[in-house]
Amino acid sequence: MSANGKKFSFWEQTGIGGLSGIIEVCCTQPTVAVKNALQEARPIHFTPRFMYTGLVVNAASIAPITAVQFGANMALTPYFAGKDGTLSPVMKVATACSAGMISSLVSGPAELVMIQQQRFNTSLGGTFKSLVSQRGPAIMGKGLSLAAGRDGLYVGFVLGTCSVVTSQLQQSFGLSPSAAFTVGGLASGIGAAIMTHPFDTMKTKVQGNALEPNQASIPEVFRSIWKEGGLGGFYKGFIARGVRLTAAMFILNISKSKMEDALVAFKSDSKNTTGGESVRQVL
Q1: What is the pLDDT of residues 157-202, one digit of tens each?
Q2: Residue 241 pLDDT > 90
Q3: DSSP-derived 3-state class of residue 154
Q4: Domain ranges in the chain?
Q5: Under 8 Å CB-to-CB from 102, ≥6 apart: which residues?
Q6: Tell me, what's the pLDDT at 3?
Q7: 3-state secondary structure 168-227
Q8: 106 in helix, strand or coil?
Q9: Alpha carbon distance 137, 128 (integer Å)
Q10: Mean pLDDT, the chain, as a whole number?
Q11: pTM of this prediction?
Q12: Which residues of 202-214 are buried (b: 16+ CB within 10 A; e: fewer)?
């Protein structure tokens, strides 16, 4: 069941998630390029080629990632719901966090390829071939635990906290739906950025040296970052990523809501009208 009380199937939510992810990444890809460059201390070039290198693999990876997130969130709901079939605020966040951790099985390997592609400016196929040929198939799991921690927290904010805060603001303070959503989205976006950025910084470092002769473990990366910059070292690229996550909070939730409304309207029209005329009216 969606936030608006309408019921959707697993596949419907999966499709909505995939389309929402493509919209989000097309809008925010430049912030990903800047964030990765800052985290790896690489120069930034304000050119379309630099900003959108890796867009195809990122879009191709984000679509299944958000599809898995939305679909898994739907599939897990019955296991976290109460006897009445609804989710409490805490369980809504827990369900979303679990869905995020599941999605890291897709996001971790995809981002490994994207980071290497950005580092060496190689093709998607060439990057994947280099990784597997030099390090074996197991290399695709590099940084997976960090991706799971990051994605679990992130989706917890997107599909859990944002909705919970928005509802509470409406009920407790009488804010309008738009005002409550604005506050809830900003709070969730900033919260997600603060909580997940250290995971993302370490993951980028771990995956960034995937083809280096000396492989750095997660504890070694942690100590290296702390030694070089203390707590601030874990927040390199924070502004770029914070902007992206906050924007994504609105893009994903608005896209989800609009597509759910369109799907409800389509279903309603299909039930109440017949023939080709109804299809033309919906389109």
Answers
A1: 999 999 999 999 999 999 999 999 999 999 999 999 999 999 999 9
A2: no
A3: helix
A4: 10-271
A5: 68, 69, 72
A6: 53
A7: HHHHHHCCCHHHHHHHHHHHHHHHHHHHHHHHHHHHHHHHHCCCCCCCCCHHHHHHHHHH
A8: helix
A9: 10
A10: 88
A11: 0.82
A12: bbbbbbbbbeeee
pLDDT at 274 over 60: no
Count of all residues that appear for the chain in the document = 283
**Are the CB atoms for 236 and 37 separated by under 8 Å?**
no
Residue 157 DSSP label: I
State the Cα–Cα distance between residues 240 and 178, nearest whole angstrom: 25
Instruction: State the alpha helices, DSSP H only, in the chain.
Output: 10-39, 48-52, 55-80, 89-120, 124-135, 144-155, 162-173, 177-208, 218-233, 238-272, 276-282
Q: Could you tell me the two tokens for 43?
A: 């120069």
CATH, domain range 10-271: 1.50.40.10
Grade residue 2 by pLDDT with cuts at 50, 70 and 90: low
- How many Å apart are CA 221 and CA 233, to the nearest integer? 11
CA 143/CA 80 separation, integer angstroms = 28
| pLDDT tens-digit series, residues 36-95 | 788 777 888 888 888 888 788 778 878 999 999 999 999 999 999 998 889 999 999 999
Structure tokens at 210: 């995937």
Report the alpha-carbon distance of residue 252 to residue 273 in Å, rounded.
31
Residue of 247, 268, 173, 271 lying closest to 25 (CA atoms): 247
Structure tokens at 105: 């099985």
The span from the CA of 169 to the CA of 166, in Å, is 5
| Residue 37 CB-half CA count within 13 A | 20
Q: 112: which 2 tokens?
A: 């490994």
* Tokens matching residue 252: 């994903």
Distance CA 31, CA 37 (A): 10
